[in-house]
Structures are given as C-alpha cells and as structure tokens.
Amino acid sequence: MGKWFPRFYDIAMKPLENTRFKKIRARLIGKATGRVLEIGSGSGVNFSYYLNVDQVDAIEPNPLMSDLSHKSIRNSKVSIRLHQVNAEKLPFADNTFDSVVATLVFCTIPNPKQALKEIQRVCKPGAGIFIFEHVKMNQELLAKLQDALTPLWEKVCDGCHLNRDTLRLLKESGIDLGKIDYYYKGLFLAVEATNNK
Fold first, then answer.
1. Are the CB atoms for 66 and 84 separated by under 8 Å?
2. Is 53 exposed, middle or buried (0-12, 13-18, 19+ CB in 10 A)?
3. Which class for 15: exposed (0-12), middle (13-18), buried (19 or more C-beta within 10 A)?
4. Whole domain around residue 97: which residue ranges?
5. Number of domains in the chain
6. What pLDDT sits at residue 1?
7. What CATH number is given to the structural domain containing 146?
8. Where is the signal peptide (predicted)?
9. Among 176, 158, 126, 189, which residue's Cα sits nearest to residue 4?
10. DSSP string of 139-180, one letter each residue
C-alpha cells in the first residue's frame, strides 16, 4: 500500500464530495441512532454528519488514513472512538450497536462476506445498516470495462475492486434490504437495511 494514496484520495474525491455525495452521506448518516459502528472511516469524511447519536466507534485498518482523521474527530459534535482493526474481526461483543454506517469501503475489504457476518454479529436485532458504495454495473459493456480495469485499479487504489458486486453480497448475507437508491446510472447505490438476525 503506497503512502501517497490516503492523501490523494481526499483530493480526488473533493469534487464529488461537494456535490451529490455530500447530500447522500448527510441523508444516510442522519438516520443513524444510538451507538454507531462505522466501517472503514478513512480520513473521517463522515464524522461531521453525525448529529443525533450517542457515540461512534470508527474502524480503519490503514494507519495513514487514521492519522488523517484526527482533525475530523476533534471537530465532530459527537464522541468518536477510532479503532485500527479490520472489518473481518471486530473487537466488540455481540449485540453492541444500534446502527452501522459504511461508505465507499466494501470495495476494499479483502473478505466482504466475513465482514458482513461480523456486522450482523455486533449489531442488535433490528439495527439500521446504512451503506453507500460503488458497485459492479448491470450494463454489460461497462461491467466488462470494470473487470478489465480492476487489477490495475486495485494496485493503485489501496485494494479497491471496481467490479465488486456488493449488492449481491448484501442479498446473500441475509440482511433485510429496505430502500435502495441508485446514482450515476447504477455505478453507486445507497442502501437502508436492517439487521434481521
């Protein structure tokens, strides 16, 4: 993993964050309540959107990304605890969280199926799960382009898989998918789901 990627990521994402992404994040994160688990908090871009929650436990395995998040933690209106751990092995007891937030992270998790199992384990029954991701597109030509670009993209962008079918993984996990909104011709989706274990 290159040291340059965390700094490049925020710069590259800034034009998107100042447009529709900001509204999507604000709407999804605004639905989180109680004690919240954020998966892959990165540089802390979501932290300013938490308003009506008791506490956020943010996990981020990349130490360089974690370092960049300290300013966002200081400026946050809620208590945020940062944990440098992987999503596949969460250090929390069963039934701990009222809500989970994951934005633009499932593309990089090495074992997303295991991460979803862990999310279900640490969430209370009925907990809200709020996800914003880029996904493999339904349009065949664009999906093939994603497949072709992924090996290089994965190396350059800290393990990001352009072609990950996160919606299929969510459906297979047994999480109760509620509302799904599609953006940019299906390249991105926002999911409001429920832990129905």
1. yes
2. buried
3. exposed
4. 5-194
5. 1
6. 43
7. 3.40.50.150
8. none
9. 158
10. SHHHHHHHHHHHHHHHHHTTT--TT--HHHHHHHHT-EEEEE
Distance CA 69, CA 53 (A): 19
Does the predicted model carry a pTM greater than 0.90?
no
- Calpha distance 134→137 (Å, rounded): 9
109 DSSP 8-state letter: -
Say what the pLDDT of residue 2 is.
Answer: 46
Q: What are the tokens at 150?
A: 């992924």
| Contact (CB, 8 A) for 134 and 104 | yes
Using CA atoms, how far residue 103 sits from 118, 125, 139, in Å, is 17, 21, 23
Q: Report CA torsion sign: 153, 135, 172, 178.
A: positive
> What size, in residues, is the chain?
197
pLDDT at 193: 97
Q: Which parts of the chain have pLDDT scores under 50?
A: 1-2, 4, 8-9, 11-13, 15
Instruction: Please tell me the distance from the alpha carbon of residue 146 to that of residue 157, in angstroms, as a whole number.
Output: 14
pLDDT value, residue 17: 54
Farthest CA pair distance, the chain: 45
Give the per-residue pLDDT at 14.
Answer: 53
C-alpha of 3 from chain center: 21
Rounded Cα gap, residues 41 and 19, in angstroms: 20
